[in-house]
TrEMBL record:
GO CC annotation: plasma membrane
Biological source species: Usitatibacter rugosus
Topology relative to the membrane: Single-pass membrane protein; Single-pass type II membrane protein
Transmembrane segments: 12-32
Keywords, comma-separated and alphabetical: Cell membrane, Membrane, Protein transport, Transmembrane, Transmembrane helix, Transport
MF-aspect GO terms: transmembrane transporter activity
Family classification: Belongs to the ExbD/TolR family.
GO BP terms: protein transport
Primary site of residence: membrane
Subcellular location field: Cell membrane
Alphabetical list of InterPro entries matching this protein: ExbD
Name listed for the protein in its UniProt record: Tol-Pal system protein TolR
Length: 138
């Protein structure tokens, strides 16, 4: 038996007003608890370029190491001996210039120890700027 034959069934309805009220309260809470950080500005006076002569680059000492463990400073063959003696030769080649750049050109077959010897000698001489040269492939 169907007693509800003539009655229309009501569709359920979602009331959005309580949902909106809750979202407004959450937004107010987020606004109040958010911390705003302020970034301070630095007043910097940048240097201006002049049309004068460009400054000279740093002095470069070219140190070459070949596969047999021979060393050359600026193209002049030099016997290694020990790091202290080689550091003296580096100081002499620098000719009193302060902190030259040591450019190490090592052969691909040279031992790591040969390159470390040059680096140790440069450290003993007080030269901190060391660079390695490479060769591009044809």
């Amino acid at each position: 038996m169907n007693f509800r034959k003539g009655r229309a069934r009501e569709e359920p309805e979602i009331n959005l007003i309580p949902l909106i009220d809750i979202l407004i309260v959450v937004l107010i809470f987020l606004f109040l608890t958010t911390t705003y950080s302020r970034f301070s500005e630095l007043q910097i006076n940048l240097p201006e370029a002049s049309a004068g002569k460009a400054a000279e680059g740093p002095e470069i000492l070219n140190i070459a190491v070949d596969a047999q463990g021979r060393y050359a400073i600026n193209g002049t063959a030099t016997v290694f001996g020990n790091p202290a003696a080689f550091s003296q030769r580096l100081k002499e080649a620098a000719k009193g210039r302060k902190d030259p750049v040591i450019a190490i050109s090592a052969d691909a077959a040279a031992t790591h120890q040969a390159v470390v010897n040059v680096m140790e000698s440069a450290r003993l001489a007080g030269f901190n700027h060391i660079s390695f040269t490479t060769q591009s492939r044809p």
